[in-house]
Design a protein that fits this description.
single chain, 6 helices, disordered N terminus, alpha+beta, flat, 144 residues
Length: 144
């Protein structure tokens, strides 16, 4: 007779889904509205709003939004600069700061998210964009 597997002693381990929880969408849209209006661009046009959400398995850590990709990257770089010393091992944090000091913001953000979780809790970065048209009609934004 084959040995029985005791499922009560071995809990199933699941990985978090890499999706924005519904409440994060609300937070992101609130952030957008608070930064100058729906889809505000230089010149008054309605364009895409780039959104970034940093989250752990059970909470949202950071939300950034901008009509300019470079501005969104600058906001993410600020988050990474602040968090790296406590979230990463010393060598990884030093690498992130060296990249930031060298003006390589995208590489610094990439390195942070590639190494976060090796020391303490994992974090995930989810990015996307919301069209100006969807922001003008909030139900469209929530359906995306």
């Amino acid at each position: 007779m084959p040995p029985m597997k005791d499922s009560a002693t071995r809990p199933e381990i699941t990985r978090p889904r890499r999706a924005i929880p519904p409440s994060a969408i609300d937070v992101a849209l609130d952030e957008v509205v608070g930064t100058g209006g729906a889809g505000a661009q230089p010149g008054g046009g309605r364009g895409d709003v780039f959104v970034a959400v940093v989250h752990t398995i059970d909470s949202i850590c950071f939300v950034a939004a901008s009509t300019l990709r470079d501005e969104l990257l600058r906001q993410l770089a600020g988050y990474v600069r602040q968090r790296a010393p406590e979230a990463l091992w010393a060598a990884a944090a030093a690498r992130v700061h060296a990249l930031l000091d060298g003006g390589e913001l995208e590489a610094a953000v990439d390195h942070y998210f590639a190494t976060v979780g090796q020391r303490w809790d994992e974090e995930w970065l989810v990015t996307g964009s919301v069209s100006g048209r969807a922001l003008a009609t909030p139900m469209l934004a929530l359906q995306r």
